Hints:
The chain is mainly α and about 220 residues long. It has a single domain (about 20-210), classed as Rhopdopsin 7-helix transmembrane proteins (Up-down Bundle). Helices cover about 65% and strands about 0% of the residues. It has ten helices and no strands. Helix 3 (about 45-70) packs antiparallel against helix 10, helix 7 packs antiparallel against helix 9 and helix 9 (about 160-175) runs antiparallel to helix 10 (about 190-210). The chain is globular. The relative contact order is 0.15.
Amino acid sequence: xxxxxxxxxxxxxxxxxxxxxxxxxxxxxxxxxxxxxxxxxxxxxxxxxxxxxxxxxxxxxxxxxxxxxxxxxxxxxxxxxxxxxxxxxxxxxxxxxxxxxxxxxxxxxxxxxxxxxxxxxxxxxxxxxxxxxxxxxxxxxxxxxxxxxxxxxxxxxxxxxxxxxxxxxxxxxxxxxxxxxxxxxxxxxxxxxxxxxxxxxxxxxxxxxxxxxxxxxxxxxx
Length: 222
């Protein structure tokens, strides 16, 4: 396989070149903004900052893909998105469900298997973005788990995850519509996928951060 091969996969790109997809490239700054915001709000906590680093890697890989339009950059883009999703699945299982880290990691292969099954089931439909349907279903699944949790403190997050699932659904629709709108809107809609996804990843990361980051000790009376 030629990993340096040119990839023309989006409406905005008209030919090879570093700035062949200006909107798709620049819109990745939303991921960087999300990464910086999560990093700062983690207030030095190592665990939550891992999510910020992963967001930063998504920014780098996606920017490289849309700027260079090569096969290796596309693979890196897909890889780091998958890593974030799997890592977040493990974090959610530990932080919100109270499962110990020693067992929480099992959520990653389970979700990966779900992704493979869902993607394979949608393959006959030739749906662009089939691999993202599992994360879409996963967001609503996480919302359902939170809605039925025993802890009132944890239950309060379920509307946030449900709304985030809806936003991701809109984002996925825009990603799928990219080539369909080329005739009337040459830039396409993929850049909107970046902007909305950055919001989705920021919101779920912030939710985990608030439950994961160490809480300050109550001050003693002077």
